[in-house]
Amino acid sequence: MKKIVFFVIGFMLIASSTAEESTPVSTYNCIPDYSTGYTIGGNGKWGPTQFDVKNQKYILKRKDSEWVWLEFGEDEAEKLPDFFGPKKCGLFNELGFLHCTNYGELIRFNKHSLRFQLVYPVGYVVTGSVVTSGEKRHDTPHIKIGTCSLL
Predict the structure, then answer these.
(1) What residues have CB less than 8 Å from 151, skipping those under 6 apart?
(2) Predicted confidence (pLDDT) per residue in 15-69, tens digit
(3) Which residues, in sequence order, are bridge partners of residue 148?
(4) In the chain, what is the straight-line distance between the N-terminal and C-terminal CA atoms, in Å?
(5) Among 41, 78, 107, 114, which is disulfide-ready with 100 (CB 3.0 to 4.6 Å)?
(6) Cβ(92)–Cβ(98) under 8 Å?
(7) Domain boundaries, the chain
């Protein structure tokens, strides 16, 4: 009798995990809630700060058999120089985690909690600044946390 009960429970666990995989999700909409990091202040010294994340959105989507992390509106085919590093995601592991790299950012997402964290570790250790659209800004290390929803 115990063998039958264990068999039935085991079968139900396998069936439930298979059912989860048989309805594949292909896109998540991810919105950061908070961002904190370090920046150069008016005195020219580094210090902690909060960053505004209003109107920031990300898309995590499956393209063929791979996952891609994009800023909302970003062109997938956009090619940046190699010094930004590879733009790629791995596969979900058995605990539901997905790890991505996106031009120096390290992204961790969990499909069960629907939470993500994005870490940008570069900035403090490099010299100089970055020029964006004619404006000079300093490259600042930061972390963002947020939640995702299914699309």
Answers:
(1) 27, 28, 29
(2) 433 334 444 678 999 999 999 999 888 888 889 999 999 999 999 998 878 898 8
(3) 30
(4) 44
(5) 107
(6) yes
(7) 24-150
